[in-house]
Amino acid sequence: xxxxLPLSLRSAxxxxxxxxxxxxxxxxxxxxxxxxxxxxxxxxxxxxxxxWRWAMHKIFTDNGxxxxxxxxxxxxxxGGVAAGTSYGGKIFQNIxxxxxxxxxxxxxxxANGSNxxxxxxxxxxxxxxxxxxxxxxxxxxxxxxxxxxxxxxxFLLSGTNDLLSDGDNNSLFYRLDGVTxxxxxxxDSIVSSIRTANSQASILVMxxxxxxxxSNGNLAETHQAVASYNESLKEWGANNxxxxxxxxxxxxxxxxxxxSTPFYGVRSMFNNPTADGLHPNAQGDLLMAGNLxxxxxxxxxxxxxxxxxxxxxxxxxxxxxSITQQTLEANGFTANNVxxxxxxxxxxxxxxxxxxxxxxxxxxxNKGYTVDFTLRLGNGATDGWDTTNNFSLNLGNxxxxxxxxxxxxxxxxxxxxxxxxxxxxxxxxxxxxxxxxGLGAGYYIWLGDVLIGEAQTAAGGSSSGLTFSYSGTxxxxxxxxxxxxxxxxxxxxxxxxGPEPLYLASGESPSILKPGMIEWTEGTAATAVATAGxxxxxxxxxxxxxxxxSITGTGSTKFIYANNGAYGSANNRQDLWVTLGAGTxxxxxxxxxxxxxxxxxxxxxxxxxxxxGKSTVFGVVNAxxxxxxxxxxxxxxxxxxxxxxxxxxADRTSVAGSYASTVDGDITMVFNDGAFxxxxxxGFYTGNKxxxxxxxxxxxxxxxxxxxxxxxxxxxxxSRGTSLTITGTDAILGKADGDNWTWTLLxxxxxxxxxxxxxxxxxxxxxxxTTGAGTEHQFDKYAGTIxxxxxxxxxxxxxxxxxxxxxxxLGTLQNFDKVQITGNxxxxxxKSxxxxxxxxxxxxxxxxxxxxxxxxxxDITNNGTIRTSHNLTLKSxxxxxxxYWVEGGTLDLAGQAVSGKISISAGTLSxxxxxxxxxxxxxxxxxNVNLGRLDGSRLNSINMGSGTGTISGLTGHADLSGSDTxxxxxxANMGAGGTGIIQFNDADNASLTLGNLTxxxxxxxxxxxxxxxxxxxHVTNAALHADTNxxxxxxxxxxxxxxxRTEGGQVIISFGQLDAMVxxxxxSKNVTSASTLGATPSVTNNxxxxxDxxxxxxxxxxxxxxxYLAGTEADAVVNTGTDSNVxxxxxxxxxxxxxxxxxxxxxxxIEGAAQLVKDGEQRLTVDGRVTASALDVRQGExxxxxxKESSIISGALNVEQDAALTLNAAALSxxxxxxxxxxxxxxGALLTIARDTLSDLTLHASVTGSGTLKLDNCNLILExxxxxxxxxxxxLGGGSLRLQDGSTIALEGLHQEQENxxxxxxxxxxxxxxxxxxxxxxFKGDIxxxxxxxxxxxxxxxxLSSGAGGVDVSHIRAxxxxxxxxxxxxxxxxxxxxxxxVGGNTEDASDVDATADLSLMNNTxxxxxxxxxxxxxxxxxxxxQRAVQLVLTGSNGGVAADLTTGASLDLTVNTETLxxxxxxxxxxxxxxxxxxxxxxxxxSINVNIYGLGSAGDWAILPEFTVNAFYAENGLxxxxxxxxxxxxxxxxxxxxxxxxxxxxxILSDDGKLFQVHFTKLGDSPLKDFASTGNQQGxxxxxxxxxxxxxxxxxxxxxxLNAVGNAQAMGNEEAIRSALSSYAGSGITALHSAxxxxxxxxxxxxxxxxxxxxxxxxxxHDDLPGFNAWIEGEGGYRKLDxxxxxxxxxxxxxxxxxxFDVTCSDSFVWGxxxxxxxxxxxxxxxNGNLDSxxxxxxxxxxxxxxxxxxxxxxxxxxxxxxxxxxxxxAGMYAMHGSTSGSSYGAFYEGTYDLYLNENNTSALQPxxxxxxxxxxxxxxxxxxxxxxxxxDMDSTYGTVGLGARLRGELSANLTGRASLGxxxxxxxxLLGDRDTxxxxxxxxxxxAGxxxxxxxxxxxxxxxxxxxxxxxxxxGSVFADVNADFRSRASSFNGSIGxxxxx
Length: 1941
Known about the structure:
By secondary structure, this protein is mainly β. Residues 1-25, 361-365 and 1387-1391 have low confidence and may be disordered. It is globular. Helix content is 10%, strand content 44%. 52% of the residues are buried.
């Protein structure tokens, strides 16, 4: 027989693990997630991937988000990412609480079936420390996450298995309502548990992901059903938002928009879509995580790159891109066959369209590069999805392909989307990578800021730049184009980033370059000193002979040029990089970038720190053309830029872009420091030349004493506009003029003449107010003039941008078309814009305040905030979505439509007829408001705040029921003469409808409340509709009050004595006065009662009473507010009314932070949840019976003398416990007392009932024996239990959650534990004192302690179990106890076979031992299967151990036992000073040897001995006789029956009892083997027993089962086990492979025989070309022969082929075939997929024909197999492999014509074939898996038969149908036997050969075919074939179509 530990012991061994971690405060909104728990199924666990959690880790790391993983699991289900893998310097711990196949009900803890193994039966309540009971019983002893480990953020993805794996998923669509109800109910339960554990937790719920093809449901209806569930989930999430729940859809981009099946995934984003198709791969994980982060409001991946917006890239078309033919060419683009309009490029012209750009020579993959664009393509599904014509971007060595439905890298789909509706930018960056930090090199692709492609490698491109191309005819509209050829950048983002450092690849920091600056070249600079002299000229490049130079000076040089003379060519560009450093100056000349001749290249001229300057600086002067860009940078604090080459103020100039020289490029000037005495021109100083690009000035610092023009001084043309950007306040723009200050003019245009095409832009960026000395002239004080045009001609928009401008602008504006407020600006304008500005826009996040009347009307687009306290008139409709704040004056809307909102606190609106519904709010009144005849439907809300005033000018009907209204009433609004505070112009026909209304009273109104009574308050002069349950009075602390009714436009409020308060279901009542409830005789609440006393300051105003609280609705709520200083008494007194007992029941909940006091001698029963900062039960009884959610008292629970607290199956937690009252824990109720630090708790109260008292951080001291009831489970969450001396305490059980607890018995204390059946409790800690521990329950109690020598331990109840072990179950651990007793010598009538079990898990020393007849003592059996010894040192009357007849001793033995057994004075049970006695008239005991068959080295021992008993005073019976061997009933593992002969030995002196094992000479299984396969299996198993170190647990279990069957002589079971172990089903893979190949050649033979030219006709048009395709299906069967496996193979597939009729006599062709097969075999089933490539030839010579076929095939195969003994354990194995075959076939025929025109013929035929097939070896997984060698066969066929064929009928084209009948006899030759050589996995020495069934050699084949012509060139054909032979048969057929070209 086999011996197993009882379930209770095996469960108990899992009860002892602890984990300590820390916690951080958390907030999702600021990027600090705190402790994070991921909960879900296999998609979260990770199948062959790191899961979406790994992708989220990268998002968090990129963005500095702080989080700590918490969970009960580590790692992925398969494949994936190892825990500890780093990305960006942050470790991914891969910790979570998810498991493959998990259901939501398992997580929630709802019992629903028998399988709860995914989390070992645990659930979220266990993990969060809310319960220790697992879902279907048993005690949870795993990790709990409480206190510092409490999760703050939960990610929950669950439901896939509930929807698809439970029930028939094909009927899910029809069952969806019921499934959804259960699933969302489980989600409710999970949320409730989370909120109980952490009321502030954030819960992020993900929708169910889509999938492709999977066994769990592929019907379109099933896919649609899950999509419908997701919509229900989102609605559920919205309803649970108040509980911290947010549902996020994670399917964007993963759903295949082009699929005809709804909610169908992109196949390439899932694991192996044909076999799995449900679990996302890395690409699916990437998109899921990106969608999740986006739904959280978080920034997307940056991939460690600095972020830049598109308009910040090196090549761009502006913040509002202007794309024209000219701007494209100016930026270096070449356009071919495209349309350019409206700032877009359309590629829809006929033929191929392209847009190209070439990088510069220095650009490439060193530091990366970036391209950004937006694309709209096609028309979606309107004309069907075009997924073949791609819009392509060829970039470097990669290609991005985009079609109507997909964004692809090469051919790999990255994202699926309707691209016709796309508005998101697409960015591609080549990233150089950061391998040290886990960032791979390659191409990264973003859609918006969501990363959709990661580290993509080369994909079909080769380019030194980029090319956009498209050859389709659909609209392909490109816009918002930008690029950077020098660095890789991630997109800018508005998403949340966290508090930790952002990850930047290689530890780099974001660029610190000031606006406009460029990265200077890395090339080595030549150094030199400029020649000094009043007439000296210094040419840097010419002198140093280097394009890169750094120059210093020792004196003034008249002329300094970066280059002098023609240089470079169109094909040999020469960029200049010149730095002028310390001492360089030009006192009497100028400094220039280039002079004389043409320059091909870019000029970069920098005046670095120490440069003196002195004279004018030109970009180019007196030259031909600069074919490139010019960059001038001024960064010297000592630089002074005067002029000496001109006289007269009108001509004096400090800097100019060009002096009479053409520039074929852009001019950029950056001013960081220096003093500029005279004018600055971005364009020409003189000369009617052209700048083909733009002129851009960036002012970051320096002093500017004269005018600044971005354009020209005189004639000249700038082709692409100008820009002038002032950043920050460091620059000083102006100069002192005596005592006055003259501000510098800023102009975007020209001074006197010239032309600018492309408009002008002036940007004022990052300007904030400055204070203190020295800031008087900083830019925030600027009061000069800013001009958008100047003189000359400006073509294009003239624009002024305030970007992040956060102060008042004091200057004057003129000549602007548009002013834009952006970049989170907070701008105040102190002057009127007048007629100088045409339009105004305020972007989202920015605000503008008008500080004076605007004299002219304005075109406004407001997406931000505009504040005005002055008059403002709109000119046209405002399409923005922002807000106007009217704080005074008049906002004249001129009847225009406004898409945004208007909020008014004072002032007037006029001409409001263009406004939309709900667009106006009155808020924070500071004066009277006139709404200008506003229709009531356009009013959104009124909230007066603390101000006073009237609201007039309304008309019609206003419905504000959807918002909260707050009004402040004065004496003028009271009484008969009062007026309404809200005035309608047409009061008689008007109405006002309100929802929640809060009324506040001014002091003069309060003064009128002289006596109790009803008072009227005038709200409106129209009809008022308001529910009094939603009206409240705030800021009033006088008499008690209640809202009684409304009359007309008035609210009537009663002050003084009040009636009973009744709140109906669905209604609510707000109470803000303590006296209101105090004066209320009773409260019946079936809705919501909101108590908010937080505004009160006096303690008496924070104290109130609720009398006789009652209600019948479970969803009713009493909200007590957030103020913990509020005290609410729940009063239930004895009623004076004899019909009222004073007892009330309230079905709802009481929630909030107030302190609760239960007073009065009667009972209050609360069915719902209770939360409070403290609970004091002073009098009477408080009954809590909420079973859904835990009640939580954050402070102390006090139950006073004579008061009672009863928990009926409810849970209550509190921060402390005090009082002398009584507490009843009924129906499994849980009372938790959790202190912050460990301290003593003396229990004065009486705690009884059948629940749990859980104490965290408490040393419990019991005062009396009766403190705790015997049915109470004491759960110590840290701390100890202390008994008084001599006391007896009886408990349900003792459970210790954390390590190092303690049990103090005192002197002679007695602890009785009575665990119920099925319960397991575990205590771990020290035991002190003397006394006894008695376990008398039917459950399991585990005590892990080193014990105490003065303590007795006993277990007396049959069916129960007491487990004793060392604290750590260490190998060298030991225990000491006084006396040990097991059992009670009585049997329960209900279970006479039950035993009382006591286990010793470590070596133990005790005084004496007694085992009753129903007792069982386990020695060992711990998790490591260590042997344990019990040593008895004492004796009782000479007897150390008393064993009653029937007693059992279970020994766990191992090699240590055997070594110790060599000492005949040693035994597992050893009595050092006494005897071991068996009592009873027929003395016998049971000894079970456990461990045999599980230890690895037993079988190699030829013999060994186990010393079971040793007694110094002998092994005796009650009458003093020595034992005999027959008195010991011996059992052991079945394995031993296969290996050993077993004997019992009693020593001659009667002191030692031994069990001796002797190895057998050969396998006893051979006597049972009746087949060759069984014989091989028997030999193999015998060899297995000689390699015990390699025996797996499953193999050992199988050997035990076989051994048991052998011991019982069960021949049938043994033969079945041997046959299944032999696994002949494996041979079926090879047998079926061979048969399938022959069938495939037969299909092709049937085609080939009909090819060729008809001999009846002359063919002038040869060669002829034909193509054909056919579908095929078949069935083959080979019968089993005893246990030699046959097979059944069902196949389907097809063939595609072509053939060429070269002449009348010769045809050749090729074909490819694929066949997919389902295989059944002996105790196995699987798949066989086959693929064949074929060449064939047909030679026709007269009537002779010769057909030749050459074939090569390959196979993919898998096999699932079972083996074992039914009823004793079956094992599943799986294997997969591949195979190959090749061969040749020949057939010859001769035509015997049967009619004159030769249209019918009889063909005798003969054929032969030869083949070679191999199925590769493989290793099975699971159970009894085998290593399988290669299976090879060489075989062939010969056949003889005849074919009858002829024409049947002709079609309209004259083509005849053909039919044929076939028959032949076929003989198989060669290897007909199929054998396999197997060996158990890991045990090669146990190999054997297994045979499969053999099919008959001779067979008869029949066949028929027909070919029917279709039109002139096509034909349809069909064939059927059959083969019959001994033990085998096959049937197959095909149908196809053939086309002649």
